[in-house]
Specification:
single chain; SH3 type barrels; two-stranded antiparallel sheet; 0% helix
């Protein structure tokens, strides 16, 4: 099972809150659409690797999108928060409602200072 993926030298793992910038073409116009949510799964390996992003939309409805990592429409991925999770797949978030559906402990990114003796 994939624990993390790299996209343009950015390491993304399960439990992270990300913003995916996707280029949408409608007729002759193109625009960038941002989808922000929690990475709940990373599957496969190599060129077939995909990641699933889940967010709570309007009216408390859960919305999930599955993105192939090599999709040319993905312009940028931003990591807003690093999540501290103990599972490879966070499918249990599908059963939760409200704040508990998006609440994941944040990974402590600060290094502890070594006590000088």
């Amino acid at each position: 099972m994939a624990q993390y993926l790299t996209h343009n030298d950015l390491k993304i793992s399960v439990g992270d809150t990300v913003k995916v910038h996707q280029e949408i073409s409608e007729g002759d116009k193109t625009r960038i659409q941002i989808f922000e949510g929690i990475v709940i799964a990373i599957k496969n390996r190599g060129n077939g690797k995909t990641f699933t992003v889940r967010k709570i939309g309007a009216g408390g409805i859960g919305v999930e999108k599955i993105y192939p990592i090599n999709m040319p429409q993905i312009k940028k991925i931003e990591v807003k928060r690093k999540g501290n999770v103990r599972r490879a797949k966070l499918y249990y978030l599908r059963d939760r409602l409200g704040k508990s559906a998006t609440r994941i402990k944040e990974k402590d990114t600060h290094t502890k200072a070594v006590k000088a003796e």
